[in-house]
Amino acid sequence: MTLKFKLKDLPKLFVKTTNNWFDSNPFELSAVVAYYAILSLPALIVIILNLVGNVWGREIVQGELLDEISAAVGVQTAESIRVMMLDRGDESVSIFTTIIGFITLIYGSTGVFYQLQSAFDKIWKVKEIDNANGFVKMLLSRLKSFGFILIIGFLLLISFIFTSIISAFSNRIEKFVPESLFDYVYIIDFIISIFFIYVLFATMFKYLPTKSIRWRAVRIGAALTAILFVIGKYLMAWYFSEMDPGSTYGAAGSIILIMLWVSYSSLILFFGAHFTKVYSDMYLIEDEPIK
Hints:
This protein is mainly α. 77% of the residues lie in helices and 0% in strands. The protein contains 10 helices and no strands.
């Protein structure tokens, strides 16, 4: 029998989630994800720029991404990432080299999602398959990871479209309405951003783990994670701007800041995944028929 959520159960949910989160050694898992994020970042940027840039304009997408990165980890780090975005595709190369480069690009860009899938499988206690099928599992996981890159590209594109519509709308009405009403435009933009973050987390919680997760648990877990992520994003931006933790590392400071940001974000993501698992277990959602 499926149980229903009660508000009085919330403290118990958070206590159990926190205990499970600590037991899973989240700092080690987040450090692994941060390491692979650094390795995946150049390839991921190239793919996102080409996917969304071909539709929306490469320079526009690059500018929007750099603005978000600057707000999160600072201008210096954004400048380092801008260098990664420079087009170096003018060199004349052979078809074989192009194919090898494309395969390497896909493999590198999917690394971070592959590690997230591995972490989610540990959280959901998915049993390891036989070594004989290990290569097949790795190949399927990489293909699934590439699918998430496409999802991110699609969400970015839709987000840019909505942002542009809101910006154009606000520019049209600014001569006819009081300036105080512009706050509502920014609120709408903020709500849309949270919605896309929620969709991304819900998709990850639903489809990244090897086992099938019920939407009832995913919806609750993704909503909590999105709220925590937005709060954490502003706290991390304040921490990076006020404390400047990357200054100690000199030229490597930008890389350290990116790794710190990914690591902190991963801690929030893993907490949300544990909450989803605890919620599912407490309310016997795993006993429901798969829909």
